[in-house]
Design goal:
By secondary structure, the chain is mainly beta. It has a single domain, classed as Porin (Beta Barrel). Helices cover about 5% and strands about 45% of the residues. It is built from three helices and 19 strands.
């Protein structure tokens, strides 16, 4: 299909598949103090069956925009009834029209799939890509209110780029009240405290609250996540304290995606902290600033920058002719490879003034992989800024732009199909511009133009002189 006609065709399919109800609905975004009643607000009767949620859980629809830590509500009471269960889901489908190119030198290997002995393959030859639909992503979410202020959450990926079969992302229990203890002093403390225990998405930085999580792509104003994507799930516990717009968090986790008890000398716990302030200065202005730290000095296999097992939205970009959807699922991303030792800091300013939103990422990560070739650590820096302007009644539509850059020192030979020079300083930059429209509270149609460029990669690395650019369209349903 000619690209000139393929993109409008894809847009028409995505829009035509969605109900185009445009009834006005309240937009909810605000500081932690303002979020006390958002999740339990009155909803339109036509939407009530699929938008009801528990007061201390982030709403899964448009009301959850710019909600970072889950709301803290006094109305989170079960009473004498049975536990309440909420079933939700997320679905996302992309239409991709990207081109890519590189200048890497040929890297020839024998072709073992053909009988000709002199036949060979160039592993730095890029996969031919064109316009089409990517594999759909889907999530299933279960939230249960077991007692006053006691929630359980479980998320299952039903379909993802890396795993087409269903598999569990993680689950946790969250306590915003401990009234079953019958101790008034503890009840007073819990007015400001949230406790989370389980296998959950670690609360490092604020960017993970705005990223696409497989089928849940409603909170990301763009299609792709940040180039150096700080996201992982780990087993542990978290203590969050909030009062008058100020917040402080400390967490201890096992430092790995999977639990393990073998080789105890080769693993240690991760410590995660966050400090910040989130104030609704006046009805038109909200200011938030947080700083986070993640540290593990002796992990068996840390995945802070490699924990997204669902996969990138940019299929096959800068991948070679032997790539597959699931094996090369991180296309367009960079993982610095700090698997044994890592210390990372992330600073996140956020400003919302009327319909204008500004969000920033300033991040430094250092560490090492722990293999024999790496005796000393390396460091990477990431900068990003999002500018989004929301308009129409209740901010049902938006336009936005994002600039994202990373730079650092490569680990030698980080993955199959990529040959690097250990210690090479490289950089990647990306520009995204796009917009979106919420036909209803639970449905989002968004599109972006993206251009990503790779600089200073070694000549035998497939990313040498690399670039990809083009259009992405995504339809999202989340409830």
């Amino acid at each position: 299909m000619n690209r000139t006609f393929a993109l409008p065709f894809g847009l028409a399919l995505l829009v035509g598949a969605m109900p185009l109800a445009t009834s006005a609905q309240p937009a909810v975004s605000g500081s932690a103090d303002d979020q006390r009643s958002t999740a339990s607000e009155v909803v339109d009767s036509a939407e009530a069956p699929i938008t009801v949620t528990h007061p201390n859980m982030r709403p899964p629809d448009r009301r959850g925009l710019n909600v970072f830590e889950p709301p803290k509500s006094d109305a989170d009471r079960l009473g004498s009834g049975e536990p309440r269960l909420r079933v939700g889901a997320g679905f996302a489908q992309q239409f991709q029209a990207l081109d890519h190119a590189n200048t890497a030198a040929a890297r020839m290997v024998p072709n073992t799939t053909t009988p000709a002995p002199d036949d060979s393959l160039n592993l730095n030859e890029l996969m031919e890509i064109g316009t089409g639909f990517n594999l759909a992503a889907a999530n299933l979410s279960l939230d249960a209110l077991l007692a006053d202020g006691i929630h359980v959450n479980l998320v299952t990926y039903l379909s993802s780029r890396h795993h087409q079969e269903a598999w569990v992302k993680g689950g946790y229990i969250q306590a915003d009240a401990l009234r079953f203890l019958g101790v008034p002093a503890i009840d007073d403390v819990m007015n400001y405290v949230t406790i989370k225990v389980g296998h959950y998405e670690v609360n490092y930085g604020d960017a993970h609250y705005r990223r696409t999580d497989n089928g849940n792509a409603l909170f990301n104003p763009f299609v792709g996540n940040y180039i150096m994507d700080a996201f992982t799930t780990e087993i542990g516990g978290e203590l969050l304290v909030r009062h008058a717009g100020a917040l402080a968090m400390v967490a201890v986790t096992g430092g790995e995606i999977n639990g393990n008890v073998t080789a105890p000398d080769g693993r240690s716990f991760s410590v995660i902290t966050k400090l910040g302030i989130d104030r609704q200065v006046n009805p038109d202005l909200r200011l938030r600033l947080t700083g986070s730290m993640y540290h593990n000095g002796n992990a068996a296999r840390n995945t802070l920058y490699g924990g997204d097992r669902a996969g990138s939205r940019y299929f096959f970009v800068l991948e070679n002719i032997q790539a597959t959807t699931s094996a090369q699922f991180t296309s367009g991303l960079i993982n610095p490879g700090f698997t044994e030792e890592i210390t990372a800091f992330q600073l996140n300013p956020f400003v919302k003034f009327h319909g204008l939103e500004l969000f920033g990422v300033i991040e430094r990560a250092s560490g090492r992989a722990g293999n024999e070739s790496e005796d000393v650590g390396r460091a990477w820096m990431q900068y990003a800024v999002d500018a989004v302007y929301r308009f129409l009644p209740n901010e049902q539509a938006y336009v936005g732009a994002r600039y994202n850059s990373v730079s650092g020192e490569l680990l030698g030979a980080p993955s199959a199909g990529q040959v690097t020079t250990a210690g090479a300083d490289v950089s990647i930059s990306r520009f995204q511009i796009g917009g979106g429209w919420f036909p209803t509270r639970n449905i989002l149609l968004k599109a972006e133009y993206v251009r990503q460029q790779y600089s200073d990669f070694p000549t035998l690395d497939i990313r040498n002189g690399g670039e990809f650019n083009g259009l992405m369209v995504e339809g999202v349903i989340n409830f």
